[in-house]
Amino acid sequence: MPFLIMKGLVDAQQEGRKRGMRVNNIILASPDIDLFKTELAQLSEQVIERIYLLISPDDAALRFSRRLAGRVPRVGAADGEELGKLGVKVIDLSQIED
Question: Among 6, 5, 26, 9, which Cα is nearest to 18's?
Answer without folding.
Answer: 9
